[in-house]
């Protein structure tokens, strides 16, 4: 047992004791499934929410690539589209709760090592990536609930994209105001590039079948979905990372954009519509694979949760 693992053991045991105490003292808690079962349900709901976000974002981006709608959207565009549908507030609440469930699962993976990645260098790198993923989906979930105040209002995709870009530029300006702000912003851009490259590497390196408990005939095409989806998601991060790095090097917050803005800039290049269409199809594949994970992924709650 490594020292890093030993330091986390008291936290895991405290969580387990809290659950057992609740089951003994609260009648309602005694009638509920065990905490490990609830964790599995929450994780599967979370994967489903992630699938909806990427499947919708990919479909809307594909419509933009074929000039059916005005401009490409990022992952936040799925929430904006959902807000315009009948019962938009209800769907937003369900989506937001699903994403928060996924954030909770990412916490268990990163902090409690739910996937048993270990505490060697590779294990910590994987868990750090899961922590960053949890942070991203936490921001996305918070953004979904922000749409509750705007549900039913008539807003265009261009207006949503402009607002997202303005928010990102405001954050970049705050960062540039700090000592060595340009270097910090460029480093943030390098992190985005690293995340994109990491997704592309995963598309070719990871054994996605190993994490699934599904029939072999079904897992094989699911693995193809995963590789296509991770490659496309990684590619979608690259233009945004380049914009952020350049903004840091030039010390100009106005050069920062959003994922949707980066995709729109990509579409404006020669052959951009084709590239954007392929990226959109890949994002849809990533969303479809998330639904596969919601059904068949091996969810292993931390042992201490029982």
* Parts with pLDDT < 50 across at least 5 consecutive residues: 1-5
The averaged pLDDT comes out at 81
SSE order, one letter for each helix or strand: HHHHHHHHHHH
Number of strands: 0
Count, helices: 11
What is the approximate shape?
Answer: globular
Notes on the protein architecture:
The protein has helices at 3-25, 27-31, 35-65, 75-83, 88-111, 121-146, 157-176, 181-205, 216-250, 259-267, 272-296. It has 306 residues and is an all-alpha fold. Helix 9 (216-250) packs across helix 10 (259-267). It is globular. Residues 1-5 have low confidence and may be disordered.
Write a brief caption for the model.
With 306 residues, the chain is mainly α.
List the helices and strands and how they pair.
Blueprint lengths: L2 H23 L1 H5 L3 H31 L9 H9 L4 H24 L9 H26 L10 H20 L4 H25 L10 H35 L8 H9 L4 H25 L10
Helix pairs in contact: 3-4, 3-5, 3-11, 5-6, 7-8, 8-9, 9-10, 9-11
Salient structural properties:
single chain; about 300 residues; mainly alpha; 11 helices; about 75% helix; about 0% strand
């Amino acid at each position: 047992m490594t020292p890093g693992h030993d330091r986390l053991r008291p936290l895991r045991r405290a969580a387990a004791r809290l659950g057992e105490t609740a089951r003994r003292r609260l009648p309602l808690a005694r009638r509920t499934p065990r905490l490990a079962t609830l964790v599995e349900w929450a994780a599967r709901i979370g994967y489903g929410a992630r699938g909806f976000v990427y499947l919708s974002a990919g479909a809307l981006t594909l419509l933009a690539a074929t000039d059916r709608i005005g401009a490409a959207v990022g992952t936040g565009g799925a929430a904006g589209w959902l807000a315009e549908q009948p019962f938009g507030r209800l769907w937003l609440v369900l989506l937001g709760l699903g994403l928060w469930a996924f954030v909770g699962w990412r916490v268990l993976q990163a902090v409690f090592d739910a996937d048993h990645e270990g505490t060697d260098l590779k294990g910590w790198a994987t868990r750090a990536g899961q922590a960053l993923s949890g942070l991203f989906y936490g921001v996305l979930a918070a953004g979904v609930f922000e749409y509750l105040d705007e549900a039913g209002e008539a807003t265009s995709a261009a207006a949503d994209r402009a607002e997202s870009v303005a928010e990102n530029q405001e954050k970049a300006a705050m960062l540039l105001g700090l000592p060595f702000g340009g270097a910090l912003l460029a480093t943030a851009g390098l992190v985005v590039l690293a995340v994109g490259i990491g997704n592309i590497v995963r598309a070719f390196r990871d054994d996605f079948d190993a994490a699934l408990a599904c029939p072999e005939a079904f897992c094989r095409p699911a693995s193809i979905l995963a590789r296509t989806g991770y490659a496309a998601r990684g590619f979608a991060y690259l233009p945004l990372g380049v914009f952020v790095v350049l903004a840091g090097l030039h010390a100009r917050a106005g050069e920062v954009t959003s994922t949707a803005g980066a995709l729109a800039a990509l579409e404006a290049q020669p052959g951009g519509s084709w590239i954007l269409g392929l990226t959109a199809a890949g994002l849809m594949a990533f969303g479809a694979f998330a639904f596969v994970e919601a059904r068949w992924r091996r969810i292993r709650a931390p042992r201490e949760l029982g």
